[in-house]
Write a structure and sequence with these properties.
This protein has 566 residues and is of the alpha/beta class. It is 19% helix and 32% strand. The protein folds into three domains: 162 residues, Galactose-binding domain-like (Jelly Rolls, Sandwich), CATH 2.60.120.260; 84 residues, Immunoglobulins (Immunoglobulin-like, Sandwich), CATH 2.60.40; 289 residues, Glycosidases (TIM Barrel), CATH 3.20.20.80. The radius of gyration is 24 Å and the shape is globular. The protein binds beta-D-glucopyranuronic acid. The site of beta-D-glucopyranuronic acid (BDP) has 10 residues, from loops.
Length: 566
């Protein structure tokens, strides 16, 4: 699936901006326009925009609605709508008629506008979103009725904010369009091969590779082939060298950026263009003041400038696929991305064949596999994506976890040759699954959730836990999470938990261990920035483990990390 673009053959019209909005009943169907709509901004989470707690905390169905006008363009043969992300389950209606359904909060919704609406030239577009978590959604969760109000049991640590979260486009395709392109590269500084495969019914196909400096350096014809490039400029950390793959048919035109880079796991090393990489960076969240989980260019640029400033080279899209623009920026800035699916906190596997309420089972597995397919379809050509994470903190000590993850790994390996990781928090001894991964991610909170505020336990405990993993699985490892909640502006000497001084001392202890263990190929501090999560006794206006505040200003630890990562 290709991103909507504007060029001489295609038109993409933004449908962002003001929409009508209403919280609606669970059996709602938009036969008639909304009766008492509120105005809402798109993209944004609805949870942060109003003054009533009843909307902020609303669980159930909401309807977004607006009129769309469909221009009649001579070159357009197909009209489609693409919503970058909205969730969890989205049902789309035009003039009250159901046209499309999608399950997956963090992946695109893309559907064709039926002919009769194009003839009419306009339609009422209704996007009905259902944020009820279940064992068929990712993340999983449960929804209960409490005194006629829906409430959720959430097994993950970020707010279940909902809304149309990414850009919405009405876009056109010419007849026999270029539907997709798969680009793979292999090579080194002397020579590279670009393998391509184009999905289209067009007959005459011309492909061109354009170098980062703008010259056409290779040409091909047909739907698939290999192009040789002499002395390529490689894509690398901090070097977002991007080539363009231009496809022209008799009626269509599309340009896709790609990079030439090689990745390989050799023993305990992760090699990028033949050189070992040490991952420095963060687990992040798409989370912003007012916008909630929506993506915004200005805020995305700010995040990348901070990542660059702090000398990071990578991040994990914890705990879900981010907006396309984050990958586009990672491609351009030269950042490594571990691309994660929202399989967070999977637990309680059903030991039976039949569905059992309150268990992860075949319903979850089907959603998990379908979203991995959509993730690879979306992100396959980004040079920045160097690893896929299939889950975060699943209960991989439970018996049902192995057969479940055998299927997840078989599926992901059938659709990509990228290295696969799983992010763990169970001890090595009890882990039944980690042998399936190429790289093991481990989240650790010694001195915080255990032995609270005692940093002296960190060195020995962490050394021991990582060594146990390595001895059992013999895989390269990344410390994918370690961090302490820190209130910006709280200073204490000597340090106490929650102070900025404590965060530095805490991170320092972890880093000291990592330097001694050769199989550890990276450190991702938890978290890049403070973020919103459900209310709880251990959460003071959100999770405060950010090295930056929620409005993206540095805490003391940011200055310290910048020095360490120089
Ligand atoms: C880890 C989770 C992460 C949480 C973090 C924390 O992977 O999502 O936010 O703990 O508690 O277990 O801060």
């Amino acid at each position: 699936m290709l991103y909507p673009i504007n060029n001489t053959k295609r038109v993409a019209i933004s449908l962002n901006g003001l929409w009508n909005f209403e919280c609606v009943k669970v059996d709602y169907s938009p036969k008639t326009p909304l009766k008492n709509p509120l105005l809402i901004g798109v993209p944004a989470s609805y949870n942060e925009l109003f003054t009533e707690a009843s909307i902020r905390d609303y669980v159930g169905l909401v309807c977004y609605e607006r009129l769309i006008y469909i221009p009649q363009l001579s070159n357009a043969s197909e009209y489609r709508i693409r919503i970058g992300a909205a969730g969890h389950i989205a049902k789309i209606y035009l003039d009250g008629v159901f046209v499309y359904e999608h399950n997956g909060h963090f992946l695109p919704i893309d559907f064709m506008i039926p002919e009769r609406f194009i003839k009419k030239g306009k339609a009422r577009l209704s996007v009905v979103l259902d944020n009820r978590l279940s064992f068929s959604t990712l993340p999983i969760g449960e929804t209960f009725d409490k005194n006629s109000k829906l409430i959720q049991s959430i097994n993950h640590d970020f707010a279940n904010e909902t809304g149309i979260h990414r850009d919405v486009y009405l876009y056109t395709l010419p007849s026999m369009p270029i539907r997709d392109v798969f680009i793979k590269t292999k090579g080194h500084e002397e020579e590279a091969i670009v393998f391509y495969e184009i999905v289209t019914d067009a007959i005459t196909i011309l492909s061109e590779v354009i170098s980062p400096s703008g010259e056409i350096i290779a040409k091909g014809t047909g739907k698939s082939g290999q192009l040789f490039i002499l002395n390529p400029v490689l894509w690398d950390i901090g070097k977002g060298n991007l080539y363009t793959f231009r496809i022209q048919t008799e009626i269509d035109l599309y340009e896709e950026a790609f990079g030439i880079r090689d990745i390989e796991i050799k023993g305990t090393e992760f090699l990028l263009n033949g050189k070992p990489v040490y991952f420095k960076g963060f687990g992040m969240h798409e989370d912003h003041i007012i916008l909630g989980k929506a993506s915004n260019s200005a805020l995305n640029i700010r995040d990348f400038n901070l990542l660059k400033w702090i000398n990071a080279n990578s991040f994990r899209t914890s705990h879900y696929p981010y907006a396309e623009q984050m990958y586009e920026l990672a491609d351009k800035f030269g950042f490594l991305v571990i691309d994660e699916i929202p399989a967070v906190g999977l637990n309680f596997w059903s030991s039976r064949e039949v569905f059992k309420e309150g268990t992860v089972d075949n319903r979850t597995l089907e959603t998990h596999k379908a979203q991995l397919t959509e993730l690879i379809e979306r992100d396959k050509n980004h040079p920045s994506v160097v690893m896929i994470s299939v889950a975060n903190e699943a209960n991989t000590y439970e018996n049902g976890s192995l057969p479940y993850f055998e299927q997840v790994f078989a599926h992901i390996r059938s659709i990509t040759d990228l290295p696969i990781t799983i992010v763990e928090n169970v001890g090595a001894k009890d882990n039944k699954v980690a042998q399936l991964a190429d790289v093991i991610g481990l989240n650790r909170y010694a001195g915080w959730y255990t032995d609270f505020s005692d940093t002296s336990v960190i060195f020995d405990q962490l050394t021991d836990q990582l060594n146990q993993y390595y001895q059992k699985f013999k895989k390269p490892m990344i410390l994918t999470e370690f961090g302490a909640d820190t209130i910006a502006g709280l200073h204490k000497l000597p340090a106490v938990a929650f102070s900025e001084e404590f965060q530095v001392e805490f991170l320092k202890e972890y880093q000291a261990v990592l330097k001694t263990l050769p199989y550890v190929i990276g450190e991702h501090v938890w978290n890049f920035a403070d973020f919103l999560t459900k209310q709880g006794l251990t959460r003071f206006d959100g999770n405060k483990k950010g090295v930056f505040t929620r409005d993206r200003q540095p805490k003391m630890a940011a200055h310290w990390l910048k020095e360490q990562w120089k």
